[in-house]
Amino acid sequence: MNTAIITGVAGQDGMYLARRLLARGWRVVGTTRPGSTSPVRMRPYLRGVDVVEADLRDTERFAELVQAHRPEAVFNLAGFSSVGRSWGDPALVLDTNTTVVASMLEILLRHRDATGHDVRFFEASSAEIFGSQVSGALDEDAPHRPRTPYAVAKSATHHLLISYREKYDLFACNGILFNHESPFRGQQFVAGKIARAAAEAACGLTPTVTLGDLDVHRDWGAAIDIVEGIRLSLAHDRPMDYVLATGASHTLRDMIEVAFSSVGIDDPSPYLRLEPGMWPTTQADALLGDASRARTELGWTARRSFAELVGDMVHVDLARLRSGVEEDEGYLLRSELQVPAARAVTL
Ligand SMILES: C[C@H]1O[C@H](OP(=O)(O)OP(=O)(O)OC[C@H]2O[C@@H](n3cnc4c(=O)[nH]c(N)nc43)[C@H](O)[C@@H]2O)[C@@H](O)[C@@H](O)C1=O
Asked: Is 128 annotated as catalytic?
C-alpha cells in the first residue's frame, strides 16, 4: 500500500486530495497545525485519514513522520495562504513558506541516503509569483515578478525546488496553482465571502459584502479539479512544474452576479458596499493561466465551469443555513460524484 503525507490536510485542498488518495487505496497521514480548530470542523470529511498535529516549522517532527511512515509521496499544502495578510508578518511568511520547505527537502535527501527510499515531493506554488504587468495566459515559463511577501516566498521556494531537482535528481514538482475555491473555503477569501452573502440573502437575511476592487481579474477554478492535477503531477514518470488553471478569466463583478443569480436575485447591489483601496494593490493585477502542459503531459483539465463552482458554493451555504449544520459529508458527495474518471495514471 502506498503512503502519502499531506501537510495541511484540513484545508480544502488537503481534504479533497486525501479523499482522492484514500479512494485509490492509499494510506494518508495528514498534518494539522497544533491547536487549530480545522481538524474538528473538517472531521466529517477526513474519515480514514491518520490526522496528526505537527507544526510546520518543527522540522524534527517532519523528519520523524517521514522516518515512521516511509511515504511514497509528500504533498506540501500547508503554509501561509493569504496574499493580502502576508504584509502583516513577512518574516513569518518567508519562514513558513520557504525556509521550512528547504528543510523538508534536506530531510527527504537524508532519508534517501539512509534508506535508499525515494520520496516524491509536491509543492503548492502560486500564480501570485507572476505578479504585476502580466498579459495573456501565463504558462510555466512566464517571468516571476512577485509583489508581496507571500509571492516572494512562493517564488523563492519554486526556484529552490527546481534547484534540488537539478542538483540531486529529486522527484519534486511545483504546482503553480491559480485561485481555486470550494464550499469548504473560508470567508477570509473573497469567493467564500460572496457565496455566504448570496445564501444569506436567499434566506431573507440582509448581508452586506464589503469588497475592494470589483474589476480584479482572476482565473478561478474548483479545488476538487485542481487536486486531481496535484495528484497526477506526482504520478507522472518524470518531475515537472505545472500550471493548474482553467484558462478562463472572470471579475469579482462576474462572481457576484453568478452567485446571486443562482438563488434568483437579479440585483445584488443592495447587499454590496464598495471600499476601494481596502484590499492591497501590490498583489497581481490580473491572472489567467495556460495549463497546456498539464493537459498534454498529465491528461488534466479543469472540468467544472465557473458557474458550476460558484453555484455549488452558494447552494452548500444555503444548505448550511437551512439545516444549521455547518459541515456534513453530504455537502461534498454530490460534487465528488460529478468528477469523471481522470486518465488512468498510477504511481
Ligand atoms: C493564487 C492565490 O489565490 C488566493 O489568494 P487571493 O487571490 O488573494 O484570494 P482572495 O480570494 O482573497 O482574493 C481574490 C481577489 O479578490 C480581491 N478582493 C477584493 N475585495 C476583496 C475582499 O473583500 N476580500 C478578499 N479576500 N479579497 C478581495 C483580492 O484582492 C484578490 O485580487 C489564495 O489561495 C493564495 O494562497 C494564492 O496562492
From this structure: yes
